[in-house]
Amino acid sequence: MNQPVLEVTDLVTVFEPRGSLLRKAGGPVRAVDGVSLRLARGEMLALVGESGCGKTSTVQTIMRMVSASSGSVVLDGEDITAATHRRMRPLRRRLQIVYQDPYEALDPRFRVRQTLEEPLLIHTKMSRTQRQDAVIAALETVGLTPAETFLERFPHELSGGQRQRVAIAAALILEPDVLIADEPVSMLDVSVRAGILDLLDRLRRERGLAILMITHDLATAARFADRIAVMYLGRIVEEGIAAEVVGTPRHPYTQALLSVVPERDPLRTRAPLLLVGEPPNAANVPSGCRFHPRCPMAQEQCEAVDPALRPISADHSAACVLVE
Amino acid sequence: MTSWGYMLKRLVFAVATVFVATTLNFFLFRVLPGDAIRNLARVPHASPQLQAELRKQFGLDKSPWEQYLLYLRQLAHGNLGISFADQKPVIDNVMQALVNTLPMVLVGTVLAIVIGIATGVIAAWWRGSWKGSLGTSAAIFFYAVPTQWLALVLLIAFAGVLPSHGMSDPYLLDDSWTAHTLDVGRHMLLPSLTLALTLYGEYALITRSAMLETLGEDYVLTARAKGLRPRVIVRRHALRNAMLPVTTLIALSLGYLVAGAILIETVFSWPGIGFAAYQAVIQRDYPMLQGTFLVLTVSVIFFNLLADLLYAWLDPRISE
Known about the structure:
The complex is a heterodimer. Chain A is α/β, with parallel strands linked by helices. Chain A has ten helices and twelve strands. Chain A is globular, with a radius of gyration of 21 Å. By secondary structure, chain B is mostly helical. In chain B, helix 9 (218-226) packs across helix 10 and helix 10 (230-267) packs parallel to helix 11. The relative contact order of chain B is 0.14.
């Protein structure tokens, strides 16, 4: 197997609550609690989980927007876990991010050309015409053609899908090794989602871009990703090759997630495996297996044993006492 | 709607507002207790005949309606009447007062904008640390302090160091242009500083909240992810977008500045429009009152109009 371009090992991110005089602060929140991920060149890894499970915190920590409490993030052989802002700056061009909401991610007062030029101004010494060429090339790559007609537009003159393409173009213009896509299509109309996902898929195949895609949609993950990592309350509970995770899910949480993915035939009904109990709260992690209060298959031992991620096959592992 | 249609609509609205305000001003001062002529009755030898004569001369013997129509007709010709107090054309008095007020208000406002925006940015960037708290608390303090109190405190604190009264030294021997300007500048320092301090707090608080909003936006995160330096992020992305509400607020508050200077001008006896209005109220000098209030009204409405147009111009989403 080739050398991973991004390797995250036992990453922990703890948020200390900001206390005030009047309100007593709660305990620290372990938003990311021992997450390990490997991403190879040209690979797409989908990080799946429900809202508040720590997906975005994981990404923020990888991006060095938030400091890791322990563990490490290695980008192409270089440990960036504790990199200073100064050391991080040249590395940023190799690790780019696309945010969820294309309506928020673009500066409303920047024209498309300015948005795309900015990274070039920070990281390169290109001339004006070189920059112009690079901007046009990036726009064409993301399918905004003819590129010239988009250059002088403001974000409010673009549709949601077009904005997300601009955001992707801005992330790609520095030719990064790794692209993190934080729910890149969840704010878009269903009709334009496929276009964006196809674009990301093409980019990794043609350019060898490694993509870490955050999503809460297992169907999307199954369709586009090579590997899937399922996250629950700051932990990876199941990880493996996409087809295996979706085909033979081993963790009850993954099974529950899969049971609510709609069937293609709307008349065919299936009993969804509905989860009961409290939604996960990272400030109050249950004892033992953190999923046991909501787990339909919970046993007595689950309250005491906190299972580690154990391999099931060569490329599939799950964290559940039922997995032998 | 086209931007021309928008502007025209605003303009018509502004003119109508000026008319209504003018009418209100006219009648408001006449229901005030006291009388312009009665003041003169205390003067020795002011016989009833003389009073009646004066009343006739000032046109106060006519019915209010007649006076009002006369006022409107003259106003349309650009005639603001003659001051009861000094028998000079009101227009000349008002213009002179305005010329005195504007430099003082301008210096104070520019100072307030600079200090206000800087404090707001600092308070937003270092939110939660002592730097941010200090900036915010100081801004709230100066926002809350009554203008006249602050003016008096500064006056006492700098008594003897800086001139406390008027806008120039009548005994200045050197009549060169530079000496005169320096002298006025020294007189201007305290009133302008008072104005700046009472204004900057509001600007700082608005800037801070607008900055906090933009600093949380995804495009600021994106800028960080791109590797932009914090200072550049603040200037290019956060502040630029935060300036939208700040600019409109400043434009709006400019209208009240001319009026707001009444307290400052009174404390420092600055012979400006506010001081003139104050004097006119005391003397029941109706034409002067109408003149000064016309200027105040027009300035408030003008800057409101300006704020409206500025907003449309600044926000590319509105100017469609």
